[in-house]
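User: Sequence recovery, please. Input:
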């Protein structure tokens, strides 16, 4: 079978099943793992699929609220780098907010590894809370509210009431899309409202978003681009869009 024919069949499998692993390709097409990864890299470069940890998934629609377990497998290495860069901004005695998401949970893991304390962490994310629950020197404030099963996060008026009496030195905000001239977006209306309040009570806002989020729009607008002091992203970011963001006065850190 020719390489291009094999890649087409791989893409069809991903469209049908939503994902494929390197091991699946090796077994189905009798090729090496190196060849399987190369095929997925080619398809990802064409934007026909999205590379995930150990395989690939179908292209993500920013209007859909995908489960956390799927999001965590996408752009995993990039999110780890972003988390490492973000934690360099955190100092002992800070009060920080970690928004929900698979990039912010990488920040939580890096906080544990770096042993930054004392530190107060406010979060609406159950996965973030789980990561930090037994970490020495961390005071953890978990917001209550309505559970969003897809993201394992709490939203709604109860979460907003609890948050409005708090103050943060820094907010690390995860978004599903950001568009120059429009702003930061999420598929969930209640999450957008809570995120906007997080921004208002924070001295400094850092958006953490892998390159796939640039130029994407979703259902609910959180706030304009200029509300953030910086965006931390990866080295696959579109340079033209990054320059438009910088023109809004927002620092773009590429890692």
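Assistant: Recovered sequence (255 residues):
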């Amino acid at each position: 079978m020719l390489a291009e024919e094999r890649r087409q069949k791989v893409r069809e499998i991903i469209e049908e099943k939503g994902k494929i692993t390197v091991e699946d390709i090796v077994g189905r097409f009798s090729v090496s793992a190196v060849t399987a990864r190369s095929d997925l890299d080619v398809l990802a470069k064409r934007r026909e699929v999205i590379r995930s940890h150990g395989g690939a998934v179908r292209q993500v629609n920013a209007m859909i609220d995908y489960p956390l377990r799927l999001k965590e497998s996408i752009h995993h290495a990039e999110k780890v780098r972003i988390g490492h860069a973000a934690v360099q901004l955190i100092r002992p005695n800070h009060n920080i907010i970690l928004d929900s998401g698979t990039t912010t949970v990488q920040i939580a893991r890096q906080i544990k590894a770096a042993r930054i304390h004392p530190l107060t962490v406010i979060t609406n994310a159950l996965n973030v809370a789980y990561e930090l629950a037994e970490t020495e020197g961390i005071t953890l404030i978990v917001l209550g509210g309505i559970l969003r099963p897809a993201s394992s996060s709490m939203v709604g008026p109860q979460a907003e009431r609890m948050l409005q009496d708090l103050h943060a030195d820094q907010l690390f905000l995860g978004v599903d899309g950001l568009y120059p001239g429009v702003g930061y977006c999420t598929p969930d209306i209640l999450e957008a409202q809570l995120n906007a309040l997080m921004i208002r009570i924070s001295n400094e806002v850092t958006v953490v978003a892998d390159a796939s989020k640039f130029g994407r729009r979703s259902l609910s607008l959180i706030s304009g681009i200029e509300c953030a002091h910086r965006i931390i992203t990866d080295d696959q970011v579109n340079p033209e869009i990054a320059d438009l963001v910088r023109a809004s006065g927002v620092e773009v850190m590429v890692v």
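The two ends are 38 Å apart (CA to CA).
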